[in-house]
Amino acid sequence: MSLSWLKRKHLRVGLGAKRVMISGGKALDLQNSDDWRAAVDALPEILKAHHSRDASVVLADQFVRYALLPHNDAVKTPAQWLALARHRFSALHGAVAAGWDVKVTQTAPLGARLACAVDRELIERIATVFVASQVHLVSVQPFLVAAFNRIRQQVGNGSCWIVVEEPGRLTLALIQRGAWVAIRSRRSDERWRTVLPEILERESAFLGLDKPCTRVIVCAQGEFEFDAEMQDAWRAQAMSYRELALAWE
């Protein structure tokens, strides 16, 4: 709880390759863009009207690599977890991982650690733009992390799939009994809404789940929102990608 007068709302910016979203304003659609550079280049014009404000950036998951690090009693300090995460990304992605900024966070006391990696140049460019625009950058978060923080109470100690839709891509996170079990990403097309049950069934088989998880929280964007009623065999809940990205904390 907090008491305040004349408090200005925190500015939220959602950064994706195809679209830049801003709280209280219209989204800016980007043409012929497949990486983060066009989105960052658009920020100075967007930030002109927000001089001296505090702001946070939420990065599209397409800019983020994820890995889950199982609990390990032998790894005790934050520095050790960070070294393990960097080793994991290097093993998975090769020499390119040397150019990534890596963060690790705890998901549960004895649960897996969530490791996130982002191009270091992207973080540096964002910071430079905000300083030049005289907007105070408070934080930069991946979308999946920001969204989970907002739906954490709904998930509780239960089990669910979290499905994040971005242009041409789905990010799938499985939580079982409140613990993070898996994060996977895959290419998708306009048919994903129809074939989502088959996608999740294949992912469940790949993970060797003893019991399928049929609860699904879908963070959808695009022209057509996700219709939870389409999935009769699944307990599906649709949530707005934009609202989750730009929700004020």
Account of the protein in words:
By secondary structure, the chain is an alpha/beta fold. It is 30% helix and 32% strand. The chain contains 6 helices and 13 strands. The chain has helices at residues 37-47, 78-93, 120-132, 143-155, 192-207, 241-246, and strands at 11-15, 19-22, 28-29, 54-59, 64-69, 100-106, 113-119, 136-142, 160-166, 169-176, 179-187, 215-220, 235-240. The strands form 3 sheets. Strands 3-2-1-4-8 form a 5-stranded mixed β-sheet. It has a 5-stranded mixed β-sheet with strand order 11-10-9-12-13. Strand 6 (100-106) and strand 7 (113-119) form a beta hairpin. Helix 1 (37-47) runs parallel beside helix 3. It starts with 10 loop residues before the first strand and ends with a helix. Mean pLDDT is 88; it is low at 1-7.
Describe this structure in a few short sentences.
The protein is an alpha/beta fold. It has helices spanning 37-47, 78-93, 120-132, 143-155, 192-207, 241-246, and strands spanning 11-15, 19-22, 28-29, 54-59, 64-69, 100-106, 113-119, 136-142, 160-166, 169-176, 179-187, 215-220, 235-240.
